[in-house]
Design goal:
single chain; 280 residues; alpha/beta; Rossmann fold; Helicase, Ruva Protein, domain 3; 2 domains; 7-stranded mixed β-sheet; two-stranded antiparallel ribbon; 11 helices; 9 strands; 36% helix; elongated; binds S-adenosylmethionine
Length: 280
Amino acid sequence: MGTIDGLPPLRDVIRDHDLVAKKQLGQNFLLDLNLTAKIARLAGDLSACDVLEVGPGPGGLTRGLLAEGARRVLAVEKDPRCIPALDEIAAAYPGKLEIVNGDALEVDVLAHLVPPIRIVANLPYNVGTELLIRWLSPAMWPPVWDSLTLMFQKEVAERIVAKPRGNHYGRLAILSQWRTDAKIVMHLPPEAFTPAPKVHSAVVHLKRLDEPRYPADPAVLSRVTAMAFNQRRKMLRSSLKGLGGDVEALLNSVGIVPTARAEEIGIEAFCALARAVAAR
Ligand code: SAM
């Protein structure tokens, strides 16, 4: 049976290039090209966009992005064994795919792309969370990218979209939802991957807001939420003692009950608190 792009099936690519999955690189590959095309579609219409793909591996998602008509894809892959397989895709899509062999935590390639830029990745989970935090924390807002479409372990995806009072609500939810619209757009069982991981996965789509939802200094908001959630079971009047001064009065001044806990406080109130701290 033919593939969506006339290139060999991914099982053959993996066999021909001897791409035995390496656990230390978090290699759980997606081999179903219909599924990878579906994930690419979750990133929206890519025909007028440059796409940064991190961790293309043997290229399943890369092929999905190109088959769905991405204007250009820049793919950063750490494992040199994958590069010849990716070169074959580049040859089938002349001028559309550029491959960088490097560690996405060390090489910053965003500056090489032309806006509008979308970022799409199926990454090892630890690398994915670290990159998400970096992409959400640029020096200036709005960032250079329009949206992020990222695969995570289901539990991390739930932390990104969590609402106050839920078990998963914390700093990652505040950081993500303060300046983006974040939604889980697909759930994947372990069997969708080869080899199958132990956990379920989910794709999260984060669309940047042009302005933060509520005004606040990012550094102050980061400090206040770190303090509040480091001791999430404690009352805020005690977990925020490190802010110094009369913490109860500070909390009362922005309408937060001093005996409340961090997990009960929404983003708007945390931003009000960050503004009050900055104004002291
Ligand atoms: N995108 C492919 C797919 O969906 O089948 C591969 C996904 S696999 C979960 C993660 C990929 O990220 C692997 O190819 C791995 O080598 C690569 N990778 C791991 N750490 C990386 C890093 N720091 N920078 C770039 N690529 C990385």
